[in-house]
């Protein structure tokens, strides 16, 4: 052992402990956000009164939730990276690239921390207070807000030290001309940072900081801090961590197994039998989890084993799970729809309602393919038949899920609650279901809160980069320039949508779905709006394109989830998922031909 390690070990352990402490503080903020919202709902329903602080402090709590877990999320490898280039390099180059990416990320995070701390100090000097009746001193919240990036900076420093001393994880296998040059420069810089393995959120922030520093004469750090403070202290964002918490609580119950037992008697008479349980199970579970990966993993963990034991076609089982798992993006409460709604300034409630019909149509299309593909196949359906009494019992098994979906979606549809309030109702319902399943212990609740904070912080860093990059695009006039370039091609609206679909399919081969949205939305949205498409319609189109990316090799995330569940080669899983990929692509053109499938909510 070298003499450096005993000296550095306390420092590294201290940074790790600080990151964990900050994440726990974020988990506490999430619990307070839930209790604050629940108290507001109860007071308004019982005596028609309001706490008077919910809207203001929900915004503050959301900002803290989205950033405080960043350091712990880095340590636990929860932040998203583009690994396509990195993983195909020699081991020696991967080590160098990891160190370079960590150094760049450290610099970006340090600049972000400095900008936010300076912003808080200036706010204190000017005694800035909120416009709400509480007149809250903003510098206190702003200083707490800056702690998340500061802890992330220290976590990156710890990562750099570990890489140097060998304790980090081992690597795995004219005006128009000027504008074109600017777009190419910014895009190239972003691709360079992503290709180097930089975390997506930091790559977006770094691209914005460097581009503004080079091409605009302004105080970049002040602009950055002010923009992030205004963007992330939005009470509308409260739905994001709360729906994540709802899903994390339910993931720790026996809900998926209960779903399978409840669905089995109703699926067996259909051609394809219990293969439909993958699709219907994913559809129902998506309505209470909001996550594609969680839906695929949780439902697949139960169904794949049962289907294999009963002799069903393994390829069709894998393909149906890959395809149906993507419905977590479309069926409300979808996390991706929330993010799109915030970035595009579209009503999250309308997006949720607009996603229901296309999601159900996709599920029916998947079931139709399973039925068609099962014709002539010899199954070995062990214990697949169920008497009438068994079906009645199955309804009771499905009752908790149906009630929770009814509470969340019904409260939204009837206008009784907004997305954040519906999320609070969902968390309360998830807690009741967990208690019913005897899965509501303090340890499991703490585990769910911590997992929610890590996921929220991962999304928060990406959102911060997306907000900043969107402002940069507007400042440079990039949407206008892109629209002019597309106009010069004289594309019809259908031609534009076809081109965008092809673009997103290709992009889905190298990027995850969330990164696709936040990186392309500032340019793509003005184009489609200019072509006459509604932003609400484009949101559903974009989410379906992201669904396709989830089952597109080489980095389709659902393919990896199913591979982890089955141990099958990636090529075989991708081939099994291909019919569902084609059906999802067909859904895009159905939406083009029948836009009222989405626009009925307007």
Automatic annotation (TrEMBL):
Q: Can you say where in the cell this protein is located?
A: Cell inner membrane
Span of domain Tripartite ATP-independent periplasmic transporters DctQ component: 34-164
Keywords of this entry: Cell inner membrane, Cell membrane, Membrane, Transmembrane, Transmembrane helix, Transport
Q: Write down the membrane topology.
A: Multi-pass membrane protein
**Any stretches that span the bilayer, and where are they?**
21-43, 49-68, 89-117, 137-161, 182-212, 315-342, 348-373, 394-416, 422-440, 461-482, 488-507, 514-533, 539-561, 573-594
A single GO molecular function term of this UniProt record:
transmembrane transporter activity
* Gene Ontology CC annotations of this record: plasma membrane
TRAP C4-dicarboxylate transport system permease DctM subunit domain span: 189-596
Pfam families registered for this protein in UniProt: DctM, DctQ
Coiled coil location = none
Is Transmembrane helix one of the keywords?
yes
UniProt main location, coarse: membrane
Quote the function comment for this protein.
Part of the tripartite ATP-independent periplasmic (TRAP) transport system.
Under NCBIfam families, the record lists: dctM
The name on file for this protein is Uncharacterized protein
Q: What is the lineage of its organism?
A: Bacteria, Pseudomonadati, Pseudomonadota, Alphaproteobacteria, Iodidimonadales
């Amino acid at each position: 052992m070298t003499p450096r390690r005993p000296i550095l070990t306390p420092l590294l352990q201290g940074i790790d402990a600080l990151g964990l402490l900050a994440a726990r503080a974020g988990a506490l903020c999430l619990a307070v956000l839930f209790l604050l919202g629940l108290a507001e709902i109860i007071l308004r329903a019982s005596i028609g009164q309001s706490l008077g602080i919910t809207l203001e402090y929900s915004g503050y709590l959301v900002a803290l939730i989205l950033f405080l877990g960043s350091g712990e999320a880095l340590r636990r490898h929860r932040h998203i990276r583009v690994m396509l280039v990195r993983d195909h390099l020699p081991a020696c180059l991967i080590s160098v690239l990891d160190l370079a990416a960590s150094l760049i990320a450290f610099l970006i995070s340090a600049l972000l921390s400095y900008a936010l701390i300076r912003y808080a100090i200036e706010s204190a000097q000017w005694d800035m207070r909120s416009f709400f009746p509480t007149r809250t001193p903003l510098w206190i919240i702003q200083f707490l807000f800056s702690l998340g990036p500061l802890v992330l900076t220290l976590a990156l420093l710890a990562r750099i030290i570990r890489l140097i001393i060998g304790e980090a994880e081992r690597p795995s296998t004219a005006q128009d001309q000027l504008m074109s040059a600017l777009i190419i420069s910014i895009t190239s810089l972003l691709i360079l940072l992503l290709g180097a393995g930089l975390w997506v959120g930091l790559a977006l922030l770094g691209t914005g900081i460097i581009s503004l520093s080079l091409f605009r004469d302004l105080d970049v750090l002040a602009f950055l801090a002010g923009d992030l403070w205004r963007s992330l202290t939005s009470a509308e964002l409260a739905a994001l961590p709360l729906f994540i918490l709802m899903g994390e609580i339910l993931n720790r119950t026996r809900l998926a197994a209960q779903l399978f037992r409840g669905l089995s008697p109703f699926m067996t008479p259909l051609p394809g039998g219990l293969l439909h349980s993958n699709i219907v199970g994913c559809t129902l579970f998506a309505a209470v989890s909001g996550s594609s990966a969680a839906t695929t993993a949780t439902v697949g963990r139960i169904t794949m084993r049962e289907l294999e034991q009963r002799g069903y076609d393994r390829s069709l089982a894998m393909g149906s799970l890959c395809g149906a798992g993507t419905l977590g993006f479309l069926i409300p409460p979808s996390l991706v729809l929330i993010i799109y709604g915030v970035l595009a300034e579209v009503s999250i409630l309308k997006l949720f309602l607009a996603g229901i019909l296309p999601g159900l149509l996709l599920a029916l299309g998947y079931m139709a393919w399973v039925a068609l593909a099962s014709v002539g196949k010899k199954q070995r359906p062990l214990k697949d038949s169920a008497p009438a009494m068994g079906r009645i019992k199955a309804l009771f098994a499905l009752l908790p899920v149906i009630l929770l979906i009814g509470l969340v979606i019904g409260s939204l549809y009837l206008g009784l609650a907004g997305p954040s309030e519906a999320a609070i109702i969902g968390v309360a319902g998830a807690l009741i279901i967990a208690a019913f399943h005897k899965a509501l212990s303090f340890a499991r609740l703490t585990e769910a809160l911590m997992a929610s904070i890590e996921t929220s912080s991962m999304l928060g860093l990406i959102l911060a980069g997306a907000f900043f990059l969107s402002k940069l695009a507007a400042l440079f006039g990039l949407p206008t320039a892109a629209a002019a370039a597309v106009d010069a091609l004289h594309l019809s609206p259908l031609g534009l949508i076809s081109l965008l679909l092809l673009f997103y399919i290709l992009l889905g081969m190298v990027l995850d779905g969330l990164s696709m949205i936040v990186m392309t939305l500032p340019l793509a949205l003005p184009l489609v709006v200019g072509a006459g498409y509604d932003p609400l319609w484009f949101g559903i189109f974009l989410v379906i394109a992201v669904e396709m990316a989830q089952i597109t090799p080489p980095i389709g995330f659902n393919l990896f989830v199913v591979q982890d569940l089955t141990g099958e080669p990636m090529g075989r899983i991708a081939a099994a998922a291909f019919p569902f990929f084609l059906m999802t692509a067909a859904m895009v053109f159905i939406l083009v031909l029948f836009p009222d499938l989405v626009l009925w909510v307007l």
